[in-house]
Design a protein that fits this description.
Layout: E1 5-12, H1 17-34, E2 43-44, E3 50-51, E4 59-64, H2 66-69, H3 72-78, E5 84-87, H4 96-104, E6 113-121, H5 122-128, E7 133-134
Parallel strand pairs: 1-4
Antiparallel strand pairs: 1-6, 2-3, 4-7, 5-6
């Protein structure tokens, strides 16, 4: 299936693997939570066991230096595209309210960003995340 949109996540390349996985999980939930019709139908195996529905659109996982990563929120904002963000401080918090408070402490340019995700028109996503590389 061809999508007119792109779902992309960029993570800081210097994070530990467990941190990258955590960031990708949280950012994915942000995009899915804001997007209607992105969840498909439930799955069932040949034994009639049911499984939860999944996102219908694959996500592209990219990596970037932290300095380049910090340029992406402004690019998205300038195009009117809402992003999901994850900052370094959120590794130390224990719940959603504390995460929101940690983000609230910073101006956009000063966010200690370690991850960002968006879903938008393919060309717009490519422009916003220009300079990020496919994660290996």
């Amino acid at each position: 299936m061809e999508f007119s949109t792109k779902f992309a996540i960029v993570v800081a390349e210097d994070l530990e693997v467990w941190q990258k996985l955590n960031v990708v999980t949280f950012l994915t939930s942000g995009v899915i939570g804001e997007t209607s019709n992105i969840i498909g139908e439930a799955y069932e195996d040949a034994s009639s066991i049911s499984y939860l529905a999944l996102c219908v659109q694959p996500a592209v996982i990219l990596k970037s230096s932290r300095s380049r990563l910090s340029t992406f929120p402004n690019r998205a904002n300038n195009r009117g595209i809402k992003a999901a963000v994850y900052i370094q401080d959120m590794f130390q918090t224990g719940h959603d309210a504390a995460n929101r408070l940690s983000v609230l402490q910073y101006e956009t340019a000063a966010l200690p960003l370690v991850g960002i995700a968006i879903r938008a028109d393919k060309k717009e996503v490519d422009k916003i995340f220009k300079g990020a590389k496919l994660h290996d």
